[in-house]
């Protein structure tokens, strides 16, 4: 029996099981089994699998990486070529793009790499089409743009989300607040810090037993579901922000456009007529969470043209030095910082000082 058949069987069983307190443990078990099989699909067992697709993953350049995911013929290539000025072959038939086409834009001083990924079809997570490689590249992005055709958005949106979820990509979500620590002995130690609706001790034990884990500390710090626990145990999930880009708005009325504007995480554009690109770029910048740090050589004015761009969670002076060159840290005596993160300008700070957007820094060497 192939993996796909087993997965289909489990999905069928889950669909026909009623959801109530008595069956919640059983459903949790099935979910865990499903997650394990999905993982085997993504990373096939055995040594050298057939080599990866030619020219698929692209070297990571710039400060951030954005992937365009969508069905064939929704305008991903047109969007890329109009945003970045890169020529990605465009035609009116499906599957024009067959490999990843990279492009780079400069926005607010940051270099952002855009990847035009080939169209995804249903069943990509089960290895249909080039889906597996496409989604593997999507896992490495800092932001995913799901490009949808405005005339048939919702069906496509659900399908693509389902494909990405099956690959361990979680869109616009925070990692679940669950502490999980394996031990050598001592059984399963289960603690709860707030009331739970779905999980109890038995459910947790049955899910962990499916993974052959019999000794662990589990702490639930928020109201969690069985899926959250499985995500934490699997440990290979990536949490990526996502923007839904509704293309081809030149084909709908103003009233429909007003409704679309109220949907969260959505930007309506027209790639062909280049409408609303500035809104899209602004939203991309918000979701990427980047911080610009300007440099100032001694005795000169700060250089506002080319900032050093860091991710929001790593903005200490130490991270800034490592981004330029790792030898800088050894030579660093202290740094002078101007900007929002200090009490007075300039302030003398050490390597642990955390900077904010558009600060100016001057490094003083030993």
UniProtKB/TrEMBL annotation:
<dbReference type="InterPro" id="IPR045001">
    <property type="entry name" value="DRG"/>
</dbReference>
<dbReference type="InterPro" id="IPR004095">
    <property type="entry name" value="TGS"/>
</dbReference>
<dbReference type="Pfam" id="PF02824">
    <property type="entry name" value="TGS"/>
</dbReference>
<keyword id="KW-0342">GTP-binding</keyword>
<keyword id="KW-0547">Nucleotide-binding</keyword>
<dbReference type="InterPro" id="IPR006073">
    <property type="entry name" value="GTP-bd"/>
</dbReference>
<dbReference type="GO" id="GO:0005525">
    <property type="term" value="F:GTP binding"/>
</dbReference>
<feature type="domain" description="TGS">
    <location>
        <begin position="289"/>
        <end position="365"/>
    </location>
</feature>
<dbReference type="Pfam" id="PF16897">
    <property type="entry name" value="MMR_HSR1_Xtn"/>
</dbReference>
<dbReference type="InterPro" id="IPR031662">
    <property type="entry name" value="GTP-binding_2"/>
</dbReference>
<dbReference type="InterPro" id="IPR005225">
    <property type="entry name" value="Small_GTP-bd"/>
</dbReference>
<dbReference type="InterPro" id="IPR031167">
    <property type="entry name" value="G_OBG"/>
</dbReference>
<dbReference type="InterPro" id="IPR012676">
    <property type="entry name" value="TGS-like"/>
</dbReference>
<dbReference type="InterPro" id="IPR027417">
    <property type="entry name" value="P-loop_NTPase"/>
</dbReference>
<protein>
    <submittedName>
        <fullName>Developmentally-regulated GTP-binding protein 1-like</fullName>
    </submittedName>
</protein>
<dbReference type="InterPro" id="IPR012675">
    <property type="entry name" value="Beta-grasp_dom_sf"/>
</dbReference>
<dbReference type="Pfam" id="PF01926">
    <property type="entry name" value="MMR_HSR1"/>
</dbReference>
<dbReference type="GO" id="GO:0003924">
    <property type="term" value="F:GTPase activity"/>
</dbReference>
<dbReference type="InterPro" id="IPR006074">
    <property type="entry name" value="GTP1-OBG_CS"/>
</dbReference>
<feature type="domain" description="OBG-type G">
    <location>
        <begin position="64"/>
        <end position="289"/>
    </location>
</feature>
């Amino acid at each position: 029996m192939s993996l796909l058949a087993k997965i289909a069987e489990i999905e069928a069983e889950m669909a026909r099981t009623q959801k109530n307190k008595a069956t919640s443990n059983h459903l949790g078990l099935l979910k865990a089994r499903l997650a394990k099989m999905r993982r085997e699909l993504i990373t096939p067992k055995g040594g050298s699998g057939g080599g990866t697709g030619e020219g698929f993953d692209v070297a990571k350049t710039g400060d951030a990486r954005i992937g365009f995911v969508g069905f064939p013929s929704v305008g991903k290539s047109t969007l890329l070529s109009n945003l970045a000025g890169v020529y990605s072959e465009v035609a009116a038939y499906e599957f024009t793009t067959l490999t990843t086409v990279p492009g780079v834009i400069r926005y607010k001083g940051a270099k952002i790499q855009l990847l035009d990924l080939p169209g995804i079809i249903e069943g990509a997570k089960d290895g249909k089409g080039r889906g597996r490689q496409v989604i593997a590249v999507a896992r490495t992005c800092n932001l995913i743009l799901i490009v949808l055709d405005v005339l048939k958005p919702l069906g496509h949106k659900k399908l693509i989300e389902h494909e990405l979820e099956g690959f361990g990509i979680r869109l616009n979500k925070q990692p679940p607040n669950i502490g999980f620590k394996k031990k050598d002995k001592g059984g399963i130690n289960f603690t709860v810090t707030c009331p739970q609706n779905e999980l109890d001790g038995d459910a947790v034990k049955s899910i962990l037993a499916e993974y052959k884990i019999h000794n662990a500390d589990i702490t639930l710090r928020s109201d969690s579901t069985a899926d959250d626990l499985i995500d934490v145990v699997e440990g290979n999930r990536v949490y990526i922000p996502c923007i839904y880009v509704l293309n081809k708005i030149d084909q709908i009325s103003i009233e429909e456009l007003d409704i679309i504007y109220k949907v969260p995480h959505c930007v309506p554009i027209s790639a062909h007529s280049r409408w609303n690109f500035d809104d899209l770029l602004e939203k991309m910048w918000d979701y990427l969470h980047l911080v610009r740090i300007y440099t100032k050589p001694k005795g000169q004015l700060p250089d506002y043209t080319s900032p050093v761009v860091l991710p929001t969670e790593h903005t200490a002076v130490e991270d800034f030095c490592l981004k330029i060159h790792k030898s800088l840290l050894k030579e660093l005596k202290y740094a002078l910082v101007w900007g929002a993160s200090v009490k007075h300008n300039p302030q003398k700070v050490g390597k642990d000082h955390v900077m904010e957007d558009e600060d100016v820094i001057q490094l003083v060497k030993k």
